[in-house]
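FORM 12-B: Structure-to-Sequence Request
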């Protein structure tokens, strides 16, 4: 399932986490140079299919530069009835037998297992294991933010595990969502619970692992072994990796093999080496010449598509000068692999998984206006 225009992998939606109304309430002074806010997050879990339900589902909230000093629910190891809690002087949730006060937090009955990660930091995760209950869920967080801060950026993620999808060459993925909580709306009104109405959703998907073809020349046994180790590393990272050495046990037409694998691949990685450059530039008699000739034709016919799908790669001890000229790698870039580790291949892995290192900043709604020649102001 590959889009012939973009080379992207097919996706199957298996569920949705829908963010519902949030409540943000300031709490009494904490005696330190930070502001306190009691945050209630409501969300719905909807599993679209019952044929493959998650073995576990994890919901995460990253609250920017805030610190989460306490939360609900905590770890659930046994069935728990509905409870009511209040914040004590240490800003921790404690049980409350009475009706509670303005800072009370009520939790519905809980069923195991629920594990909690990240208390004390800015990123909190609740993992539901066993039967993942669809429907409404509630999370409470007691957060401390820098004094006077007007906005709190929250990133919501959903992670999960679907038994059996690995055999189908599928991998779970999720789409994080970001929102900004306006803290100015509730300042000075401790008896008011501002509500943030959200329509954002975090989709739960299964997506086929990217199919990757590694194209290289047999310069020498050491180079070939380095390429094979590189292919093993890609497999360990979840890539559906194909290399000629793994497919050529039986007698077959090398040209047809190359044509079939290039057509099916989401990405073709061309490994730099002197013999690869020579073959791509029309010198020498190498098997890799067939693959490079097909790539050259594809790049000529549809440069926009194949420029994204053909990725030049430099392994350790390799040189960026050893690419065929038709790849134009000096102007279109290449991917250095310093070592067969996630850190050493960070740029390449981000390209294969379409995960950008940097996010585009939001654009302010205020336009800069220039008056005269020496004055600039924000309108």
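FORM 12-B RESPONSE
SEQUENCE OUT:
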């Amino acid at each position: 399932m590959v889009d012939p225009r973009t080379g992207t992998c097919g996706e199957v939606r298996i569920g949705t986490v829908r963010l519902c109304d949030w409540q943000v309430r300031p709490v009494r002074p904490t005696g330190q140079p930070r502001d306190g806010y009691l945050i209630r997050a409501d969300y719905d879990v909807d599993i679209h299919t019952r044929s493959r339900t998650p073995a576990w589902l994890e919901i995460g909230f990253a609250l920017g530069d805030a610190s989460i000093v306490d939360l609900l629910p905590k770890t659930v190891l046994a069935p728990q009835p509905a409870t009511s809690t209040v914040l004590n002087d240490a800003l921790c949730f404690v049980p409350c037998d009475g009706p509670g006060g303005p800072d009370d937090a009520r939790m519905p009955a809980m069923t195991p297992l629920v594990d909690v990660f990240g208390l004390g930091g800015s990123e909190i995760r609740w993992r539901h294991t066993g039967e993942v209950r669809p429907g409404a869920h509630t999370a409470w967080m007691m957060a401390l933010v820098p004094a006077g801060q007007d906005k709190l950026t929250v990133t919501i993620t959903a992670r999960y595990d679907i038994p059996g999808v690995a055999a189908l060459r599928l991998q779970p993925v999720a789409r994080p969502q970001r929102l900004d909580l306006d803290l100015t709306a509730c300042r000075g009104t401790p008896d008011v619970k501002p509500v943030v109405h959200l329509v954002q959703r975090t989709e739960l998907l299964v997506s086929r692992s990217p199919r990757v073809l590694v194209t290289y020349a047999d310069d020498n046994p050491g180079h070939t072994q380095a390429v094979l180790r590189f292919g093993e590393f890609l497999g360990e990272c979840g890539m559906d990796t194909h290399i000629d050495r793994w497919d050529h046990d039986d007698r077959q037409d090398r040209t047809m093999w190359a044509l079939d694998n290039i057509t099916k691949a989401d990405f073709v990685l061309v490994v730099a080496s002197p013999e690869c450059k020579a073959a791509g530039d029309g010198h020498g008699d190498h098997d890799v010449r067939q693959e490079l000739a097909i790539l050259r034709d594809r790049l000529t016919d549809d440069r926009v598509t194949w420029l994204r799908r053909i990725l030049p790669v430099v392994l350790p001890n390799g040189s960026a000068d050893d690419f065929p000229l038709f790849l134009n790698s000096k102007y279109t870039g290449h991917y250095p692999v310093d070592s067969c580790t996630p850190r050493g291949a960070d740029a390449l892995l981000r390209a294969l998984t379409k995960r950008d290192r940097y996010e585009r900043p939001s654009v302010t709604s205020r336009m800069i206006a220039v008056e005269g020649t020496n004055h600039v102001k924000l309108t």
